[in-house]
Design a protein that fits this description.
Elements: E1 2-6, H1 20-33, E2 36-41, E3 49-51, H2 58-70, E4 79-81, E5 102-105, E6 128-131
Parallel strand pairs: 1-2, 1-4, 2-3
Antiparallel strand pairs: 4-6, 5-6
């Protein structure tokens, strides 16, 4: 399974923050559960990357990068699109036991389609997209 995050450094952006420490934690959690972490970016980063030309606007860059990834051969694998400042506290592979092509989480009280809700202890608005491979 591919765990795909996004980081396009824009030091000129008013809310710029170096996400490398967060991506290191996400990488470690992917390693723990045996999943491949891929960072969508337009920068040289010390991770496995899906490097693509991106617009300067961060929201547009995020969407353009995700679309390019989903149109690539990498999307043949089950994929989780996740924020770069998240961590896999549990193995997300359980979600792919459910019957869906595309699913996403928001808050626990909204995430009823996953059955036993493996991430019900999250009280954050941490939307994650689960995309069946292919």
């Amino acid at each position: 399974m591919n765990v795909v995050s996004f980081y396009a450094p824009r030091p000129s952006h008013e809310h710029f923050q170096d996400y490398i420490p967060f991506l290191n934690v996400l990488q470690a959690s992917c390693d723990k559960w045996g999943h491949k972490h891929i960072v969508i970016t337009d920068a040289d980063l010390p991770f496995e990357t899906f490097k693509v030309d991106l617009p300067d606007n961060l929201m547009q860059a995020s969407l353009a990068g995700q679309l390019a990834y989903l149109e690539s051969p990498l999307a043949a694998e089950d994929t989780i699109l996740i924020d770069g400042d998240c961590v896999l506290a549990k193995d997300p592979a359980i979600v792919f036991k459910a019957d869906f092509d595309l699913a996403f989480t928001t808050h626990d009280y909204l995430a009823t389609a996953i059955g036993d809700k493996p991430f019900k202890d999250s009280h954050l608005n941490n939307g994650v997209m689960y995309i069946r491979g292919g």
